[in-house]
Design brief:
The complex is a heterodimer of chains A (294) and B (44). Chain A is mainly α. Chain B is 80% helix and 0% strand. Chain B is elongated. Chain B starts with a helix and ends with a helix. Classes of the chains: A mainly alpha (294), B mainly alpha (44). Chains A and B meet through helix 2, helix 3, helix 7, helix 8 and helix 10 of A and helix 1, helix 2 and helix 3 of B.
Chain lengths: 294, 44
Amino acid sequence: MKILQKRKWFQSLSALLFNLNIPLFFKGAVHKGQTKGICVPILNCYSCPAALGACPIGALQHSLANLRFNLSLGLYQLGLYVIGSLSLVGSLMGRLPCGWLCPFGLIQELLYKIPSPKFKIPGYVKYFRYAVLIIFVILMPLLLVDSLGLGQTWFCKLICPAGTLEAGIPLLAANPVLRSQAGLLFAWKFFILIAFLIWMILSLRPFCRAICPLGTILGFFNKVSLFQMHVDDEKCTQCGLCTQVCPVGLDPNITPNSSDCIRCLKCIDTCTYGAIDYSFLKKYPVTRPKKMSI
Amino acid sequence: MKRKLSLFLFFLSVVLIIIGLNTGEFLVVLEKAVTVCLSCIGIG
């Protein structure tokens, strides 16, 4: 299918559209339009000067960090808008935005093209994503609060390399006041970024596979989203081509809707037998997982 | 069955968004997003 070969264009266009206020990169300030209240379906830092929307992971942490304080004031702001925005995207398409829209995914894929020794990421690494989501995105903002009951966005503060790359570096470069405040924390975040950039050259999409809390949340919906992948058992010869091209090391013909699948749809494009397909809002016969014959 | 669950989750998401909008959560997200996040850039 021709559209599947245009994925890089979709990713590039998405990176541009979600970060359209480019002149702000030179002013050292962030976009302040009303669109900033909309949660985007990708990991795109809201402090990126050009960003037009809100990062859902940052917004989720902020909601959880303010929860106790809000409740003490009798304000029932429970973060339902952010949770609803996340589950809306998830229920419609699962992790499809990871493969087609996320600018940080695009950066990882481009860096992987740099010639170097390549290393496979072991399967157990995916469990770090769950730990990061539970500890840094949910528990720490919710539980580590000050005397007023206000928490912090710990994932953004201690880990997120997307924030350092998209917001930290451009803002500090263009804004001398912010630059003068950079200290040990920025050095730590810069170290994390550099470590990930090197890993991105050596392995394909390491951040998506080891850390990304947004991908983890959207991945929960892969099996139940309206967008579904299907394998035609009669057409599949189990040649293994789809497994070879899968950027996250899955067996698409066995688990087409795995929560780890970023839905880049490379497997569909690669399958010469047309055994793998996708559908949206369409009834398909249930595909049963099967064992690979060797 | 799966499709019904998908549709249920979709409509549940819409309901959650509407409830969130009614409690002013859009403004909470907006206020956070239009301010330079010191945590995100690594200085606070």
